Amino acid sequence: MKKDMDRMIIPKPAIVRLSTLYVLLENLEAEGKSMIYSAEIGKLLGVPSHTIRKDISFLRQAGTGNGYEITNLKNIIAEYLGFNKYKKACIVGMGRLGTVITTKNGFYSNQYAVVAGFDNNPEKIKKGRNDMDLYPMSKLKEVIDREQIKIGIITVPQSSARKVANELIDCGIKGIINFSPVLIEINREDVFIRNIFIAGEFNILSALISQYENKQTLGE
Amino acid sequence: MKKDMDRMIIPKPAIVRLSTLYVLLENLEAEGKSMIYSAEIGKLLGVPSHTIRKDISFLRQAGTGNGYEITNLKNIIAEYLGFNKYKKACIVGMGRLGTVITTKNGFYSNQYAVVAGFDNNPEKIKKGRNDMDLYPMSKLKEVIDREQIKIGIITVPQSSARKVANELIDCGIKGIINFSPVLIEINREDVFIRNIFIAGEFNILSALISQYENKQTLGE
DNA sequence: TTGATATCGTGAAAAGATTCACCGGAGTTG
DNA sequence: CAACTCCGGTGAATCTTTTCACGATATCAA
Fold this sequence. Notes:
Oligomer: homodimer
Helix content of chain A: 40-55%
CATH topology of the largest domain in chain A: Rossmann fold
CATH class of the largest domain in chain A: Alpha Beta
Strand content of chain A: 5-15%
Largest sheet of chain A: 6 strands, parallel
CATH superfamily of the largest domain in chain A: NAD(P)-binding Rossmann-like Domain
Low-confidence stretches of chain A: 1-6
Radius of gyration of chain A: 20 Å
């Protein structure tokens, strides 16, 4: 029953899709649904059903041939992709955005826990409005080590984002979600950065829309 | 001097990179820098220099052979990708996240304007704390038509996200930035959705980190 | 002007991701 | 227990994207 033996490398886009699928399955499970078909998933995710089947087939252990059992599929994805390994995160920058993001109001899954918040403004770390512990920046390494945190969120202003990113990496953080509108230089293949770049999203949409329009015009 | 004639189709990932590059160039320009090399850009964006050169070469009109003039490159990208076409956006959901995102605190580029905010809670649209006009949901179509808005931001709770997305699309919106933690069904190729999915980002990082670790273990 | 150096631009090769098409197993029906 | 239908699984074909390698062009110094 070779499980780890032939664990192949999954295309990155497939990882991203499966990660999203996982959240979808969580939602469906909460709604009380128990089975789902590839075609249905595809519709919900906006991708063709064969893409879904292929993605799932990379896991090499899923279905029985007739639909997917939601809880089971969810667990297989979590296990295969290692979701259960790194559940703790910390956040640097307790301004308004940082506070909103980490408030348990449904904008982040309760599967993960943001266990520590940092800011170098003492005022910001006084307010006990959050569900997590707040610390000054000087405690960064201590807390990350103690809590074994591997994921960091950056919500500091532009000017200090890069510095903070480097500090996090030095403290052993392996994954960063960056909300600050600045690009972070990465030159280590063992650290992953997800830039959530609101200004960039506008540009991307703008470009996609007008590229689509051009295509239409050319085609006619 | 055929410009539009041989306008080729640019790979989507290249569009996304160029869109990000644009924001980088804005930053650099603001810092007073005037020239930049592909290697430098690559370092800042975390991609190899040849990828940058290739991306820029899709534009077919850029360099002189020795570095890029920042302002010029910026303008070429904007022109080619149509950034100057759709600058107006609206936002639905004036809760805390919606308010933070649209506050001019540096989290979104001043190149775009969120000109209207909607909410169906009359309380939320009373506070004059924002820089934009606020309306009840009933005015959606009227305002979108009048202002010729093509981009919409969704910051409503999970339960109504899908409904809101459909309403926006019905009103003629062509690009959506969705912050709600729910997947939106799209079955129109003329509407583009960018899901900013915080819970999903955690999963993705978690998966990338553990996939990396597996690779390391296998390789040794 | 000439040579040396640095950097871009791009066609072609390689790698990577998606789509296709068909096989086979699981339910279902009579 | 066939026969039929519906789906998932997956190798192979196709399509897309990235990487490579090298010719061409600009810059600078002497």
